[in-house]
Automatic annotation (TrEMBL):
InterPro entries, A to Z: AB_hydrolase_fold, Dienelactn_hydro, FrsA_esterase
Domain called Dienelactone hydrolase: residue spans: 85-189
Keywords from the UniProt entry: Hydrolase
Protein name: Dienelactone hydrolase domain-containing protein
Originating organism: Kineosporia corallincola
Pfam family, one: DLH
Family: Belongs to the AB hydrolase superfamily.
Lineage, highest ranks first: Bacteria, Bacillati, Actinomycetota, Actinomycetes, Kineosporiales
Length: 295
């Protein structure tokens, strides 16, 4: 028996419920730091699972509200890193896309995902499977809470006078690249999204060298659906999927492209490049050019 088509309602059913968001998130500005071409603000606000911690980078010299880009950090098993890496404070310099986009005139917001950096009370240990299992026993998923927190981050950012709430994009590498495919299906405010080295479908993840990241575990989802179905739920968003030929997390990109072509899903573009699981300058340039359409 074929599964029913994946609709927004069916997706929410599979993802499970999320707790109610705080009526007053209590935003707080902790610090402001002058950087090269932008100001980096450390902010926090309440979310259902605790207190979110994020960097907001605001270009200097703005004369009008600017586009907003949500910058999702990678995973890499580095639970002590999150927002700091995409803002260029620690980690790999090729991951500093939140800072680079701010230098290009975009306002960026980069929160720590659940279990990373300021959201990791276990001093950098892997909390992913704990965060997942403690939700599964309640009929919930970690992915749903992560997606809800993306929306709550956008809710905070669009209150800023420097942000044009009608122009919102998303970018991510690896774990962030996976979320770049899911977030627009959850929040239709996102109209441009870039996934770098993170487009592996569920059907290609049943291998020991890939497996399933805790955040992507949704009971029953892979029995009838895959990432193409998620991408199809956001026709109002234009996606760029960057895949490389030596990257196992880009595995299946050719099939994704062929399947989307059969669906006539013209809102998704797949770029196949040489390389590994990296986000070097030439790939970031492709991503930034894509996001320029927010202007």
């Amino acid at each position: 028996m074929s599964p029913p088509p994946l609709t927004p309602e069916r997706l929410r059913e599979l993802l499970g419920p999320v707790p109610g968001a705080p009526a007053d998130p209590g935003p707080r500005l902790h610090s402001e730091t002058e950087c090269d071409g932008y100001v980096r603000r450390h902010v926090s606000y309440d979310v259902p699972s605790g207190r979110a911690s994020a960097f907001v980078c605001v270009p200097t010299g703005l004369t009008a509200p600017a586009p907003l880009v949500f910058c999702h950090h990678q995973h890499a098993g580095q639970y002590d890193l999150g927002k700091s890496e995409v803002c260029g404070l620690r980690g790999h310099p090729d991951q500093a896309y939140a800072a680079e986009l701010a230098q290009r005139g975009f306002v960026t917001i980069a929160p720590d995902a659940i279990g990373f950096e300021d959201r990791n009370p276990a001093q950098g240990r892997n909390l992913g499977w704990f965060e997942l299992s403690s939700r599964l026993v309640l009929g919930r998923t970690l992915l749903a809470d992560c997606l809800q927190e993306i929306s709550l981050a956008l809710d905070h950012a669009v209150t800023l006078p420097e942000v044009d709430a009608t122009r919102i994009g998303f970018i991510g590498h690896s774990y962030g690249g996976r979320m770049a495919m899911w977030a627009p299906a959850w929040d239709e405010r996102i109209t441009l999204s870039v996934s770098n080295c993170g487009c592996i479908p569920y059907r290609d993840s049943f291998t020991l060298d890939t497996g399933f990241q805790a955040e992507m575990v949704v009971p029953g989802f892979a029995d009838g659906y895959d990432v193409e179905d998620v991408l199809a739920l956001a026709p109002g968003c234009r996606f760029l999927l960057i895949a490389t030929d030596e990257d196992r997390w880009s595995r299946g990109a050719w099939d994704i492209e062929a399947n989307l072509r059969r669906r006539e899903a013209g809102h998704v573009t797949v770029r196949h490049l040489s390389g590994g699981h990296v986000f070097p300058p030439q790939q970031r340039q492709l991503a930034y050019e894509w996001l320029e359409d927010l202007r």
